[in-house]
Amino acid sequence: MKVSLFVTCLIDMFQSDVGRDTVELLEHLGCEVDFPEGQTCCGQPAYNSGYLKESMESMKHMINVFQDSEYVVTPSGSCGTMFHEYPNIFAGDAEWEPKAIELANKTYELTQFIVEVLKVEDVGASLPARATYHTSCHMTRLLGVKEAPLTLLKNVKGLEFTELPDKHNCCGFGGTFSVKMSQISEHMVDEKVRHVESTKADILVGADAGCLMNIGGRISRTGKPIEVMHIATVLNSRK
Amino acid sequence: MGMKIGTAAFKERVDQGLSDSFMRGAVSAAQGRLRDGRLNAAEELGNWEDWRSHGEEIRKHTLEHLDYYLEMLVDNVSKRGGHVFFAQTAEEANEYITNVVKKKGAKKIVKSKSMVTEEISMNEALEKIGCDVVESDLGEWILQVDDHDPPSHIVAPALHKNKEQIRDVFRDKLGYKNSEKPEELALFAREQLREEFLAAEVGITGCNFAIADSGTVTLVTNEGNARMATTLPKTQITVMGMERIVPSWEEMEVLVSLLTRAAVGQKLTSYITALTGPKGEGDVDGPEEFHLVVVDNGRSKILGTEFQEALHCIRCAACINVCPVYRHVGGHSYGSIYPGPIGAVLSPLLGGYDDYKELPYASTLCAACTEACPVKIPLHELLIKHRQKIVEKEGKAPVFESLSMKAFRMGTASPTMYNIGSKLAPKMMKPFVKEDKIANGPGPLKNWTSIRDFPAPSNERFRDWFKNREKEESKS
Amino acid sequence: MIKGTVTNKDSFLNHVAKSLGRPRTSTRIEKPVWKYSPQQEVFKGYSQDELVKVLKLQGERIHTDVIETLVKDLPRALENVVMGYGGDSVVTWADPRFEEFGLTMLLNEGLPSKQVDVHVWDTELGDKNTEIAERANVGITFSDTTLAESGTVVLFNGKGKGRAVSLLPATYIAIIPKSTIVPRMTQVAEKVHRDNQNGEQVASCVNFISGPSNSADIEMNLIVGVHGPIKATYIIVNDK
């Protein structure tokens, strides 16, 4: 199966190892991965800040970049959600709406793609550790991907899984919110870190680089002995 | 008090909220209970999503034909002997209400909980003409006794107070002598308020849903205070926001079912009271005179705009009960009697951006509100629309932000620019990197690194790794 | 009934229509055929006995005692509840069903013989009724329609059926003929809607009562009994 990777700008620049894990994982599952080089950013930072015009230009660019792809897979629930928003944003635009719909229809978040399209529930990973999982908001509520990551995690050999208390509460990232309203964001992320600690997990797993950067940054600052790991990395572990 | 509460700037209010540890404990505990209640009630029905969709289609249809249904409503109210006054502004509403009260020579007025009367500062207008206006909802009454402390939640107005604080308020203001046990506090309130109900000449209520085709107003309470206010006084005045209407009993029933479940997880509250006109011929109790005041006060400005769905709100507070920002800052931080996500959408619409431009940004856009709303108002999308307005029309966004968004456009709409920018990043950030992280970032990063570390840019971008790998593969 | 006044109607409604971007609606608008109707599915096809079970279960959740009895045992059952609430004084509706269900003796003789004052709502007495109800220990009414799902008695108030009887006394007893039980609020709303369309006026006050009054305004703790009755009992009578 031919898969185009939409790696997201955060992973491209700050967590390139997560991108590598994603590629290796997909190849391990028999996919042929290509990386359309023109890709930049889905436009979400500008769109969510109210800069509609600015964001629409990057959206159009992304639509063009992935025009010939069969499947678009991304290791980010939030950026995947953004692609799925494009049809709403271009609603009524005779030229771009159909293209936006086409892109949305072929775009999958990584775990969703593995479970729903590849029909795989056990990727053959093993990682002896105690873990908990952060359900990121856009992925669960807007993209509607709730079970896939848990299904895959539960089949990782050696991984002991504990549910995160109050997992439905946002971690306080919210893109520019984290810097614009940093005082509120701090209290939100602190509560999240307290809950993570209460599970006694060694690893916090998540499927969104933004949330992980926020929670991980706070864990690092406060010196907690918890490792933050992207789900692609967990699923690509063979320990 | 009007819609706006307090004069402090947004940041000060938030700081105050964040430092109030009792309030935050009370709010997070309440959120947990209310959220569970709603989810259990929804689960019990089995087809909650259909209920929400039905609620949505009812609200949408009704608002699209608002003039038609309001006309039907008031014709039916009038047929049943009720008087109707349409008020474009708060002043017009208050003038009518005070005139009715003056004509009756009334001095004592009991009120059951109503957001719209808060919004138009009705109590102050009545107090100005020498009336004693008594709030009868337990939470509202506590706040009133405590020198008009503002409400912090639209369903549980005194949520920010603990029982010890309430005991002290009762003791200092009313000579209460018993303990802080909720039962004893409530019994005291019952006794005090019973006297007020018996003495009141006028009862004033809000309106949960007015029913157009029968001319009925429906009141939803647990305490029974709305029943008291419409059973004992000889004159009843009901004040409704103009959007609080349904076509018929059939839709009222659906929306009440959604409201009580979404608000508190109850199948129905203890009392749902449907009142049509003044008391009937031969009836002993109930008001001899009934007045319905229909209030616009800025609502028509929302009609016909991209924000029209905000008027679908049925005031259940489900969005407030799941909001992770409200959880930490509490209701008073919003500076409006409408807090939380719906408050962040509604307050700028009714009160303008000058006072409320920060509220649309007081959200992580996590969409918990949108998911919880029983009539499917896309609250987080409306917050984004507010941000668009602020950026495009109002020019109220910070200069720095608008510059960086211009840069964003250049960097993301063109792969060349993106390439140059992302390649430069590690070099530019290098001076700030220690042990693979940035603890003290420059410029906009400062707000980030004041509380958390920022990752150092990867030495090799993903795209470079991928390209190199392809090269290696083609070699072998 | 003398028609009430309506002030500022045209200016207000014209403005509403203008805001909606169209002229004022002058023709009849039909409600659309709704795409969803989940309310019809609740307890669909339940027998009367199954609905009684639902009602009893819900009673527990709303802090209301639910008793089931036969018509012939009703006087005894009612007396027990009244005396259990401390007797003293009772106020009831003037409702022919008290006689139909064989309760006249109890109200006229049985309770008074136990030093319980019984007042039957009397329109001739006017406000005196309210004063009596305010002092009464127990209020008793029949249920006009009963909702199984929410444990709700629906009272169509008016004339002999005073609003205060179910509101002002310290405790409240509702007698529920089994035949009045329907699945949920939907069935009442449909009936009122039909009647209204047929030109029949809805009662000036319809109360949906689900248990005793309560509040959660102090630290979200449930307190039973705020303004209305502090305790409530439902007596289901197997009338059919």
UniProtKB/TrEMBL annotation, chain A:
GO biological-process terms attached to the record: lactate metabolic process
Gene name tied to this protein: lutA
InterPro entries per UniProt: Cys_rich_dom, LutA
Protein's name in the database: Lactate utilization protein A
Family stated for the protein in its record: Belongs to the LutA/YkgE family.
Transmembrane segments: none
CC terms in the record's Gene Ontology section: cytosol
Domain spans labelled Cysteine-rich: 3-83, 132-215
UniProtKB/TrEMBL annotation, chain B:
Record-linked Pfam families: Fer4_8 (PF13183), LUD_dom (PF02589), LutB_C (PF11870)
Domain 4Fe-4S ferredoxin-type: 303-325
Residue sites binding [4Fe-4S] cluster 2 per the record: C323, C366, C369
Residues reported in the UniProt entry to bind [4Fe-4S] cluster 1: C313, C316, C319, C373
A GO molecular-function annotation: 4 iron, 4 sulfur cluster binding
Stretches for region Disordered: 440-459
GO biological process: lactate metabolic process
Keyword annotations of the record: 4Fe-4S, Electron transport, Iron, Iron-sulfur, Metal-binding, Repeat, Transport
Signal peptide: none
Stated role: Is involved in L-lactate degradation and allows cells to grow with lactate as the sole carbon source. Has probably a role as an electron transporter during oxidation of L-lactate.
HAMAP family, sorted: LutB
UniProt similarity note: Belongs to the LutB/YkgF family.
UniProt-recorded name of the protein: Lactate utilization protein B
Organism field: Evansella caseinilytica
UniProtKB/TrEMBL annotation, chain C:
InterPro entries: FTHF_cligase-like_sf (IPR024185), LUD_dom (IPR003741), LutC (IPR022823), NagB/RpiA_transferase-like (IPR037171)
Domain of life: Bacteria
SUPFAM superfamilies for the chain: NagB/RpiA/CoA transferase-like (SSF100950)
Matches recorded under Pfam families: LUD_dom
Domain LUD: 60-237
GO biological process annotation, one example: lactate metabolic process
Gene3D superfamilies, sorted: NagB/RpiA/CoA transferase-like
Function: Is involved in L-lactate degradation and allows cells to grow with lactate as the sole carbon source.
Family: Belongs to the LutC/YkgG family.
HAMAP family named among the record's database cross-references: LutC
Protein name: Lactate utilization protein C
